[in-house]
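User: Reviewer 2 asked us to show a designed sequence for the structure in our supplementary figure. I'm pasting the structure tokens here. Could you produce the per-position amino acids so we can include them in the response letter?
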């Protein structure tokens, strides 16, 4: 199950990196970050987790409960329970699991609701669509909670969610999954008018990289604890689609694609239209370096031996991001770039160094320093990335990470520390993974697998 041989440039340098105090420094940073988030975010009144905190970590905002953020907390607490071998994090994860089960699951149509609002003592549904992306995070959290707790009811709910997506979101003709679904799970393909103000109606007929890579992620977690043949088939399907179809020959992801996987491209549009609709077509360096890791993780859990195809594509993605999404002066990955002509000329459109992009970059740089120990730049850039995070990303006064690095936006110190799209999943995962790599305990960098 866990035996996989990745092609490496050598194995002599795969020993844990313990010099310069990096290991102990990152261990302390993780402990501090975890204690900042938990138990502060646990909502003992309404269930689940409080999402909205200002820069001083004071509760401030609407406190709506979004499926993605609630499920990510379940995953994070479960991961911490496994990492620390500490029951208090398992209890936090169980608290979040019960909220998913009792408040966010749709007992009428199946699947999880996307967004709930707390009003007085009751919860009301704010979303009028369902999201495959959101349900994938529910699978991710539930499967990992089962791994920590062995609560078979949680595993059964993860299985139920997978089968609901199979019935409602999977495309049997062109493969992959639609993200935007009607509340009852129906497709939007025959709905032409947005008379109900449906969420994300613009991309109702499309497929996308974001839901695809996180389905890859969640199916990987579920398959680790449930070796179901259909699940294996879908995990293999998503690995192939992400690696061979969504990832371009240049080494970056296409953001949105038509049902038959033709990329949505604005290259032939006017400059003004492209800028107004940058969200549709750009290079997301954070997603690229994250996907490089997720593909290797999926291949590992599938037990694919000597998977040089996935390794080569993953390396190309990291190298592409380093080539023109990396700041060589202070470190850090920029947020968005654009290829603007057929000759491959490109620009950085958004120089923000957003917290989750930096976390995923940290994780992948160290991973590739282990997989390719003869290419010293990966380790050097990992250390530079960590220095950037310590200097510009971590709030040493109030705790947590800033939304954006202060080197690109000094005013980010006053931005919210937490909201529905900013939880602890990316940076805690990165720190846990890098600690395990530095200790020589990370499965993907185990010398016997290299």
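Assistant: Here is a per-position design you can include in the supplement:
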């Amino acid at each position: 199950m866990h035996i996989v041989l990745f092609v490496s440039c050598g194995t002599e340098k795969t020993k844990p990196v313990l010099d310069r105090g990096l290991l102990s420094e990152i261990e302390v940073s993780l402990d501090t970050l975890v204690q900042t988030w938990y138990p502060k975010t646990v909502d003992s009144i309404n269930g689940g987790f409080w999402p909205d905190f200002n820069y001083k970590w004071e509760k401030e905002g609407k406190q709506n409960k979004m499926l993605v953020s609630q499920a990510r907390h379940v995953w994070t607490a479960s991961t911490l329970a496994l990492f620390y071998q500490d029951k208090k994090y398992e209890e936090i994860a169980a608290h979040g699991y019960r909220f998913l089960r009792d408040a966010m699951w749709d007992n009428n149509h199946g699947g999880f609701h996307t967004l709930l609002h707390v009003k007085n003592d009751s919860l009301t549904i704010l979303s009028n669509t369902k999201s495959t992306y959101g349900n994938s995070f529910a699978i991710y959290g539930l499967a990992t909670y089962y791994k920590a707790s062995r609560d078979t009811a949680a595993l059964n709910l993860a299985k139920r969610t997978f089968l609901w997506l199979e019935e409602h979101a999977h495309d049997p003709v062109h493969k992959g999954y639609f993200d935007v679904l009607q509340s009852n799970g129906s497709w939007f393909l025959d709905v032409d008018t947005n008379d109900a103000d449906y969420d994300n109606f613009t991309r109702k007929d499309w497929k996308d990289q974001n839901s695809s890579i996180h389905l890859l992620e969640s199916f990987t977690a579920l398959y680790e604890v449930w070796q179901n043949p259909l699940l294996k088939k879908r995990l293999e399907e998503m690995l192939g689609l992400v690696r061979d179809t969504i990832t371009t020959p240049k080494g970056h992801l296409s953001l949105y694609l038509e049902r038959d996987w033709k990329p949505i491209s604005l290259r032939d549009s006017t400059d003004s239209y492209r800028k107004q609709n940058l969200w549709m077509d750009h290079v997301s360096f954070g997603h690229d370096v994250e996907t490089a890791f997720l593909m290797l993780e999926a291949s590992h859990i599938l037990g694919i031996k000597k998977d040089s195809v996935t390794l080569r594509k993953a390396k190309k993605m990291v190298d592409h991001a380093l080539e023109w999404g990396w700041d060589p002066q202070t470190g850090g990955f920029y947020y968005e770039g654009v290829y603007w002509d057929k000759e491959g000329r490109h620009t950085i459109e958004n120089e923000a160094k957003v917290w989750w992009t930096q976390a995923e970059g940290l994780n992948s740089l160290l991973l590739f320093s282990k997989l390719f120990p003869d290419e010293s730049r990966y380790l050097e850039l990992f250390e530079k990335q960590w220095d950037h995070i310590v200097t510009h990303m971590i709030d040493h006064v109030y705790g947590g990470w800033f939304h954006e690095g202060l080197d690109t936006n000094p005013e980010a110190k006053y931005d919210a520390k937490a909201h529905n799209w900013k939880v602890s999943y990316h940076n805690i995962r990165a720190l846990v993974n890098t600690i395990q790599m530095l200790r020589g305990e990370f499965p993907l960098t185990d010398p016997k697998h290299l």
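For the response letter, you might also mention the following. Residues 1-35+280-450 form a domain with the Glycosyltransferase fold (CATH 1.50.10.10). Confidence is low (pLDDT under 50) at residues 1-19.
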